[in-house]
Amino acid sequence: MNLLIKNGFVYDPINEINGEIMDIAIRNDKIVESVPERTSKIIDASGLTVFPGGVDIHTHIAGGEVNTGRLVRPEDHEKDFVRKTAITRSGVGYSIPSTFTTGYRYSRMGYTTVMNPSMACLEAKHTHEELNDIPMLDKATYPLLGDWWLVLENIAKGDLEACARYVAWMLEITKGYAIKIVNPGGLESWGFGRNVHSIDDQVPNFGITPREIMCGLAKVNKMLNLPHTIHLHTNNLGIPGNYATTLETMKCLESIPSDGKPVVHITHLQFSSFAGEDWGSFRSGAGEIAKYINNHDHVTFDMGQIVFTDTTTMTADGPFEYTLYQLSGHKWVNTDIETETSGGIIPFHYKRKNPVNAIQWSIGLELALMTKNPWKVFMTTDHPNAGPFTAYPKILAWLASKKARMATFKRLHKKAQKKSLLPSIDRELSLYDIAIVTRSGQAKALDLKEKGHLGVGADADVAIFNLNPEEVDIANKYKTFRRAFSNAAYTIKAGKVLVKDGEILQQSDGKTIWLDLQTSKEIEISEEIKRKFREYWTVEYENYPVSDHYIKHSSPLTIKADV
Amino acid sequence: MVQEKLNLILLTGRTIDQGVGKESGKSTKLYFDSTTMCYMDETDMNKLGLRNNDHIMATTEEGSVVLRAIKHPRGAMPGMIYIPYGPWANAICSSKTTSIGMPSFKGTPVEVKPAPNQPVLTLEELLKKEFGR
Amino acid sequence: MSKIDAVTCPVCGCLCDDIELTIADGVVAQVKNGCAMCEAKFFSHNNDHRLKTPLIRKDGKLVPSTYDKAIRKSAEILAKANYPILYGWSSTDCEAQRVGVELAEEVGGVLDNTAVVCHGPSILSVQEVGIPTCTLGQIRHRADLLIYWGCNPWSAHPRHLERYTAFTEGRFKGSEWKSYINKVKAAAGRKKLRSLERIGVLKHKPEQVAPTVSDNKPPAILNKKGRKLIVVDVRKSMTAEMADYFLQVKPGKDYELIQAMRALVRDQELDVEEVAGVPVEYLQQLVDAMISCQFGIIFFGMGLTQSPSKFRNIDVAISLIRDLNMRTKFAIMPMRGHFNVTGANTVFTWQSGYPYAVDFSLGYPRYNPGETTVVDVLLRQESDAGLVIASDPASNFPRKAVEHLVKKPLIVIDPHMNATSLVGDVVLPSEIVGIEKEGTAYRMDHVPLPLKKVVDPPKGLLSDEEILRRILKEVRKIKSKKLEAA
Ligand code: SF4
Ligand SMILES: [Zn+2]
After folding, report:
1. Which residues line ligand 1 (CB under 6 A)?
2. CA atoms within 13 A on the CB side of A501
3. Which pLDDT score is estimated for C111?
4. Has residue B80 been placed in a domain?
5. What is the CATH number of domain C50-118+339-485?
6. Which of A67, A333, A543 faces C130 most closely, judged by CB atoms?
7. Is the peptide bond preceding residue A384 cis, with omega within 30 degrees of 0?
8. Is B31 inside a domain boundary?
């Protein structure tokens, strides 16, 4: 099938196309040079904005933790339900939508690829079963490896080669895409109810520090030639004063050799940029963080932007969720996973009139706006932690329009207004910048070569928005902009038109992308692991891997490792 | 003095034989034997003049069922009877869900009396009696 | 003869995946590592109680039929119904459960699983207060205080202690336990221990000592280091007999007891001498042991969910664990019964948002336990058809609920003859999941495990998943014809 998208204003930052009027030709599921007009389906995009399909680098949409979040929040679903139609399945929202609904809602905003950032390896099958039930999107998922015993033991021993082979093995058998590290060392400590409080604290029973874990895994990441960097949730996340820990963390990774490429992605950086000694003196540390990032090229980050709403926090950072529980007294889920990781869930309502929440809101925007290079910044809410992904258009408006953010700013708690840097920031992201922070930059950071752009050979994933950039100044008419980005005029994925004017036209499964890592000593590693298996886990070795049965549409990416 | 009947508390639950029985097949003898019995405290049995395997009639608001009385093998449980899960137990346990969906399988008042001349019904007989099928 | 290792046992929520089978002539000949229930199940694929052919009720009698006819008939029943119930699901695989949700949505029915009569109240409480919990390996590696409350794993989860808790060697915990086993072995004799493990209560009655109600005095061992096993129950179960400490609670008094413990954890003074039959002094000792452990866990069962206070018992038990986490590390876990009831909750939740009692009659998922729970629907006599799969409500539901179930057209899908298939109108035999069909199940702690196909099913039999798919397809056909006609 050929498809020709004619005369749209095209934004394709990877190919440095900034709003030129041009045609995009599609043959089957790829973008091609040209297609014969006569035999092609034509989409008249004149007066419309054409973007590559959206890419989300960090969104919790599937797996044990997400689903437990769904289970504990019937009150979240009751107010937001979705009827079955002839084409689509029924479901519920709000902050943790059911699987089908998740796919539909992303697709309606022009997204085509999303990354599920937090997978407990022992429960990897669960994550993949859910990913199979999320239609409309290509997906990948990051296994949690930062507190896995075999990582801790081998780094402590100083045997990075062995560590790399274990990590390669785990990435492959869990069908994962990147190394996820959450509060390194803190999760193992949490096994006995403790935590680490600096990157140089000792992890009980293991003789290792968070610094060693992060540096070790960053090196391992390099040895394995992984497409993405280590994906890091920092120590002390969510604690006043933690921006200092974050600075130290970035500094400690400066020395990792990188050929000028990023070494670490710090996720939901907003939660790691708190200054002040306690909640009373709480203020933004975004200035210091942004300054550092502007002067160094080994870091990328996503925002984890707060939106004022009732949502559900969920993270592998069990001790952090415990802190939230102590603060809120709300219903609290904690789930520790043997040998690997932990996890927690707390419902949370971010309020404009709460000074801390209001400052958090400001921090996220300050970080994004004060970081000069948009290729280092990605727009997320760490869905659903700082707000549901359906709030993205709102955040884009805040980024693109000072008028939009000041409209919200005016209604914040007075104390927060006084502490915020936002009034002094005039920067407004252009549509070109918006394309970077919502797709091109994210695809580049993930090294997904066929995503995030519209060049020949790219996947035919395209989002078209009902916005005429010649007529609408998005900084001024931010509501028009927001509306356009809430409901795509068209979402095209793998060459199929899935959405038109915000309505689902057809349901389509996406692919699951995973790393097929080629290491030289594969056999040896499985013998070692087999021996340890019954000691470490409560399941049998051969029942642990995610077999092909659990991947509906498999899309392996072959990588040759250096070990 | 032997009493005619006792008012006790009904508990239903698992036993290993009931578990093995249900996995072997609901029409096996093991399943029948293990779900048509009723654990009682020794003192309560003495009060009714019962010996192991004597038949009793257990009656609640919901209905009556005939079972075999068995002395509880470990420790005392005066005032309680314990019937393994199964159609016989369910013929008498309370259907009240107290608005949360869960019937009351434990803690229902029950009247127990000896039933020397009444048979324990087979599964088919029980279904016929209860549901006409 | 062939051997198959690492087979997952499709019986209880322990989901032991270390079963070794010997297959001879297409039949399971030997089962290694499994408990008595496991053996019974693996041998059952070949017994006389299998359903081998579809049955349809004619003139009051079930008569043999074909899959085509039985599936067609089932689809007609469901397509015609206004408010059908689709119940069971806990002893089949997630693959079938996924189709089940789609079918329930298509016919606008009430979808419910067996949690409604076991841990439904636990789910309600978790939705109120959350749950601090963990996977079972975490217990094995770290727990030094194990409490089984209102549950009896020796009978319902026979290998729970040996695989995950008391009898295991963990990274940080375990060595002290060995001496305990030796102690028990010496006291009970090896033979008895083995027979208790494998066969259970009835056949091997220990000598009768004059039974006494427990005086509930805690033993000195509670204050010592090392792993300790405590059982709280209304009667002395097999598990209680193994425990370091058996606390006998009066029936229906669990709530009071736990509330008192919460007060003691919070260092409040109690102005009474005893609570629920337990002297406060003893209770204080127990609470002290809980506070001073490194990692404690409460496993709870039907003793809490089915006795009078139901979900309030669980509410307060979880709250106790929340309080204890201010002092030390403590977790709590429901002892899920059927091998894949956790899977049913999991699949229902990811597709519909709700773990059980999901009502699709308005075209979207709705959840209101007490109203949309299947027992209540039956008691209110609202359903006009039923599909029961992988479960036996005629054995497990109270009589009044079954009465209405039987009154309306009833479809039953099961590998074996049971009380429900005896009273059904259309009976569809199926392959045994985990023996004749591969699939996925979730252990009681949410760990997903693969189920294996180890022997061929009887000729011509279909799987649950396939039967449901075909019914769904037929229902859609019937509905689209109706649309065309209209
Ligand atoms: S404990 Fe449960 S899962 Fe394990 S072998 Fe026995 S019945 Fe099977
Ligand atoms: Zn996250």
Report:
1. C 9, 11-12, 14-16, 34-35, 37-38, 157-159
2. 0
3. 98
4. yes
5. 3.40.50.740
6. A333
7. yes
8. yes
ipTM over 0.90: yes
Q: How many domains does chain B have?
A: 1
Are A530 and A488 spatial neighbours (Cβ–Cβ below 8 Å)?
Answer: no
User: ω into residue A94 within 30 of 0, thus cis?
Assistant: yes
Angle of helix A243-252 versus helix A210-223 axis, rounded to 10: 40
CATH 3.40.50.740 residue window(s) in chain C: 50-118+339-485
**Cβ A500 vs Cβ A462: under 8 Å:** no
- Residue B44, in any domain of the structure: yes
**3-state secondary structure (DSSP) of residue B35:** helix
Contacts of C265 (CB under 8 A, 6+ apart): C287, C290, C291, C320, C323, C324, C327
Q: Do chains B and A touch (3 or more CB pairs under 8 A)?
A: no
Protein residue closest via CA to atom 3 of ligand 1: C15
Query: In chain C, which residues fall in CATH 3.40.228.10?
Result: 129-334
Tens-binned pLDDT, residue by residue, of chain A (563 aa): 899 999 999 999 999 999 999 999 999 999 999 999 999 999 999 999 999 999 999 999 999 999 999 999 999 999 999 999 999 999 999 999 999 999 999 999 999 999 999 999 999 999 999 999 999 999 999 999 999 999 999 999 999 999 999 999 999 999 999 999 999 999 999 999 999 999 999 999 999 999 999 999 999 999 999 999 999 999 999 999 999 999 999 999 999 988 889 999 999 999 999 999 999 999 999 999 999 999 999 999 999 999 999 999 999 999 999 999 999 999 999 999 999 999 999 999 999 999 999 999 999 999 999 999 999 999 999 999 999 999 999 999 999 999 999 999 999 999 999 999 999 999 999 999 999 999 999 999 999 999 999 999 999 999 999 999 999 999 999 999 999 999 999 999 999 999 999 999 999 999 999 999 998 876 677 788 888 898 999 999 999 999 999 999 999 999 999 88
Residue nearest (by alpha carbon) to ligand 1 atom 2? C12
Query: What is the biggest distance separating any 2 CA atoms in chain A, rounded to whole angstroms?
Result: 70
Provide the CATH number for the domain around residue B17: 2.40.40.20
Note whether C touches B: 3 CB pairs or more under 8 A. Answer: yes
Output the residue whose Cα is nearest ligand 1's atom 4. C16
**Any CB–CB contact under 8 A between A432 and chain C?**
no
Separation in Å, CA A490 to CA A44, A136, A443, A495, C472:
11, 13, 20, 11, 32
Q: Give the whole-angstrom CA distance, residue A118 versus residue A126.
A: 12
- Residue B49: inside a domain, yes or no? yes
d(CA A194, ligand 2 centre) in Å: 21
Q: What is C129-334's CATH topology?
A: Dimethylsulfoxide Reductase; domain 2 (3.40.228)
Query: Which one of C9, C19, C91, C152 would you pick to mutate in the ligand 1 pocket, going by the greatest count of ligand atoms within 8 A of its CB?
Result: C9
Q: Does B51 touch chain C (CB under 8 A)?
A: no
Q: Nearest-5° angle of CA B27, CA B31, CA B34?
A: 155
Where would I find the H helices in A385-508? 392-400, 402-409, 414-419, 431-435, 441-446, 478-486
Domain that holds residue B105: 6-131
Q: How many residues does chain B have?
A: 133
In this complex, the residue of C44, C416, C422 whose CB is nearest that of residue B133 is: C422
Residue A406: CB atoms within 10 Å: 12
CA-to-CA distance for C88 and C468, rounded, in angstroms? 13
DSSP structure string for A42-83:
EEE-TTSEEEEPEEES----SSHHHHHHHHH-HHHHHTSEE-
From C248, C251, C399, residue closest to B90, measured CB to CB: C399
Q: Which residue of A has its CA nearest to C160?
A: A538
- Give the C-alpha separation, B59 to B112, whole Å: 6
Its pTM stands at 0.96
